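Supplementary Note 2. Why include the ligand at all?

Several targets in our set were suspected to adopt different conformations when bound, so apo predictions alone were not considered sufficient. For every target with a known small-molecule partner we therefore ran a joint prediction. The input for flavin-adenine dinucleotide is given below.
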Amino acid sequence: MTETLHIVGGGMAGSEAAWVAARAGLDVVIHEMRPRVATFAHQTGKLAEMVCSNSFRSDDSEQNAVGLLHWEMRAAGSLTMEAADTHRLPAGGALAVDREAFSQFVNDRLRGLPNVTVVDEEIAALPGEGHWIFATGPLTSEALGRAIIAETGAERLAFFDAIAPIVYAESIDMSVAWAQSRYDKGETEDERRAYLNCPMDKAQYEAFIDALLAAEKTEFHDGETASYFDGCLPIEVMAERGRETLRHGPMKPVGLTNAHKPDEKAHAVVQLRRDNALGTLYNIVGFQTKMKYGAQAEVFRMIPGLESASFARLGGIHRNTFMNSPTLLDAEMRLKSKPNIRFAGQVTGVEGYVESAAMGLLAGRLAVAEITGRSLPPVPPTTAVGALVSHITGGAEAKTFQPMNVNFGLFPPVEGLKAGRRGRRDRYKAYTDRAKADWQGWLAAGV
Ligand SMILES: Cc1cc2nc3c(=O)[nH]c(=O)nc-3n(C[C@H](O)[C@H](O)[C@H](O)COP(=O)(O)OP(=O)(O)OC[C@H]3O[C@@H](n4cnc5c(N)ncnc54)[C@H](O)[C@@H]3O)c2cc1C
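The joint prediction is reproduced in token form.
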């Protein structure tokens, strides 16, 4: 008898997972709640609907991590990439698509397979039996959200992200910044030096506040409410409440001594905290923001020590349901407390169409291997897919976990290459060459 794989959510991740599993010969049932239950962002009842921009971002597989992810997915026979390539629109180096034709292509392909059934229903519970992949996305239905909370605890499922900008460690000027935790707190030397501190004098602070207030901000989408405000204010909103608010909040200068100028008392201090186990990424603590991306880069480079900062991702605040995957999922994306269930896509804490589809592809392959009794070696963390899954299932700091785009900061460094901006082209090429070879090796070893 053929085994059935149930997939909840026919979005980017669910559609890709369904394709992988159906092509491997499993019976697949996609449970998709639209159009019966609507979300504020989706407009149709179709599978793989792009809810906002029509871009899959850079298609450069040598110098860009998301371009590399495209490459890996194409090499694995991805339906998302085939649909995107078929309905590509001119967009310079980016992969932009005709969104309706893209979604129609995915629908036609999946609904045309004899072993795929699409059921128009909302799933509101986490089944204890059968093989399941939940890929319900940033707008997971309320009823299912309640079921996830009942299983995992309220503090493990967030309904808004509050993303502080993330900086590549190598781009921080350590002749200005220094490592120290406030009041030198911590049991170990590592903990006592867990934060990087960037000092500001009064003039720098005042100029920074002016820039924050003047910067262009993004608006919420229709239907997105701002109920997050109680717990997590954007820094520009804090600044609007009073010019000193930040100096008493995330930028307070207390408990810190400038290692470079021990006699100088900073007027304010911006702190960065390690964001991944590799130590390649740091987030700017408490700096969640709704400033436009261009404005963010400009304003944050005013911070002493961050003048040449490269950002792995910029800040944002969105309606976004995501789980604390580093504590809840095992390395094969299974819910630790109910291993018959995998999660995939944006609900696992990756962000973006491509990243979500990639996690669907991986969850599909892992499910096929499990159901057919084959063993699949772990995905090398040197690949884009592997770097992402390693991040969400363990590499990221669980306490401060926020959604993540794919970026080179998630990859284990290639040793012996020049650091800094000058060496960047060679470094990225080395990352992508290594990733491509390792991904091909992994594909050859698996389903
Ligand atoms: C307003 C908004 C704008 C965005 N803009 C962009 C952008 O411009 N670029 C970008 O890359 N990413 C954007 N994103 C993120 C984007 O949603 C994801 O990148 C991508 O769609 C996630 O794929 P997914 O498969 O995880 O979720 P989705 O594509 O959202 O698919 C999840 C599916 O699950 C269904 N579902 C939910 N709950 C249930 C249930 N209980 N039972 C059955 N079905 C269910 C939903 O109807 C949906 O079809 C945006 C998100 C939002 C909310």
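The pocket of flavin-adenine dinucleotide is lined by residues 8-14, 31-34, 39, 41-42, 51-53, 122-124, 135-141, 144, 221, 319, 345-347, 352-353, 356 (CB under 6 Å). The longest strand covers residues 316-323. Comparable summaries for the other entries are listed in the accompanying table.
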